Amino acid sequence: MLENKNILIGITGGIAAYKICNLIRLYKKSGANVRVVVTPNALNFVTKLTLQTLSGNEVYVDNFEIDEYKPEHIALTESDIFVIAPASANTIGKLTNGICDNLLLSTACAFARPILIVPAMNENMWNNKFVQENMTKLKTAGYEVLEPASGFLACGVNGIGRMREVEDIFEKTVAMFSQKQILKGKKILITAGGTREKIDPVRYITNSSSGKMGIALADNAYKMGADVTLISTFGVEKPYRNIVTPTALEMEKAVKENLSAKDCVIMSAAVSDYRVENVSEQKIKKQGGELNLKLVENPDILKEICQERINLASHQEAVAPLEGEMSKGQRGVNIKPYVVVGFCAESENLIENAKAKIQKKGCDYLIANDISRKDIGFNSNENEVYIIDKSLNIKHIEKDTKENIAKRILEEIFE
Ligand code: CTP
User: Fold this and answer.
1) Cα-to-centroid distance, 394 and ligand 1 (Å)
2) Which among 247, 250, 227, 249 has a CA at the least distance from the CA of 238?
3) Which domains does the chain have, with CATH numbers?
4) Whole-angstrom Cα distance, residue 26 to residue 299?
5) CA 407 to centroid of ligand 1, rounded, Å
6) Pick from 306, 317, 308: which is nearest to 390 by CA?
7) How do strand 115-119 and strand 144-145 relate by DSSP bridges?
8) d(CA 390, CA 201)
């Protein structure tokens, strides 16, 4: 299953270090090349000779132990995956703060391919507020994490903190390799979140969209190898590009500016259809009686980019034979026919309205959500959708986590 994969294992100082001997054997039996880097403290729990014998390779400990300095951490980054197990609270804390005071940490800092973190520690350490904050940081930065299990801990108590079994680590590694890179080389622009239309410096009009579906799409597209640009109404810390645009007009501008050379645009943001015409520069004071706000229509970003695609294609047809390529004057847009995916939120007649909407907007796919249901959609971690294509074929994706729904949507569209 792991034939010719280059796996780098990082072992830190914890009693679970001895279990990694079995993990090395599982990887080797499965055809992988294994190299091991350890922190100096790991060698208090397992010997260098054991790791060297099992992996069949030199074991790396320190940047400066050799006579002639070689940037080993850079050579080690050429591996396909870095599995840090057991990962101690100390290493996790340093990793999340960019500290590189040993070879394992320098390697992790320079590692551009997938990293799997498998923590193991005492229950109180695991529950420590800073450790938990660091775990959140790792996950939001795109690291894969295999959370510890509950059970008997080496410190003599039963609790959470036990390193997951080596078989689980092995399975997780296989799963990470089998993540299909169907979007490798593709540039994708995704919008997410509900826009906030200002009334005055402290108030705004918004909607119930949490942005979770758009972020799940961006995360999955990134894992599938895409070059992702996420334009969202609030900022997120992710390993891909994120542009923050709270209002519909800002989002429209950012989408158009970033459309160039994209293979696909997914408009999952809940863009407000209206904005306040005259935003007050000062906080509006209560004056008694009514307050009237005049709302004006926002641009329909989805419809505009679909229209722009048609305009550019017909323009290219007209000028291409003469000029060979588009002149810079035409906004420098690379006009390959990007795929456009829209979303639609409906509280009644879902399919009927969705079919009408895909034709009105002119996109290639429309993902339809039923917002009348309380168990899915807005603010929920789960969703259930219908994918409608421009020939009005319908594919139902059953209720699942937004993560899995996002994966299914991308697979359906790109496979
Ligand atoms: N959309 C957009 N710009 C807008 C409104 C919506 O780009 N001003 C996009 C959304 O990102 C979504 C799709 O259009 O991909 C459908 O959004 P939805 O709110 O369901 O539809 P509306 O166009 O607002 O139509 P209606 O209000 O009539 O349901």
Assistant:
1) 19
2) 227
3) 6-178 (3.40.50.1950), 187-414 (3.40.50.10300)
4) 56
5) 22
6) 306
7) parallel
8) 42
Instruction: Count CA atoms within 13 Å of residue 359 on its CB side.
Output: 8
- The neighbouring-strand residues paired with 389 are 365
Q: Report pLDDT digits (tens) over 293-305.
A: 999 999 999 999 9
The residues that are catalytic are 155
CB of 273 sitting under 6 A from ligand 1: yes
Identify the residue whose tokens are 């000062």.
282
- Identity (one letter) of the amino acid at 338? Y
Q: Residues 99-148: pLDDT tens digits? A: 999 999 999 999 988 999 999 999 999 999 999 999 999 988 889 999 99
Question: Ligand 1, closest atom to CA 345?
Answer: 20
What's this model's pTM, rounded to 2 decimal places? 0.74
Question: Within 10 A of 389 (CB to CB), how many other CB atoms are there?
Answer: 15
Are 179 and 223 in contact by the 8 Å Cβ rule? The answer is yes
DSSP state of 336: -
pLDDT value of position 74:
79
Q: Which residue's entry shows tokens 């498998």? A: 118
Rounded Cα gap, residues 263 and 373, in angstroms: 33
Atom of ligand 1 nearest to the CA of 341: 15
Interior CA angle at 265 toward 112 and 221, to 5°?
A: 30
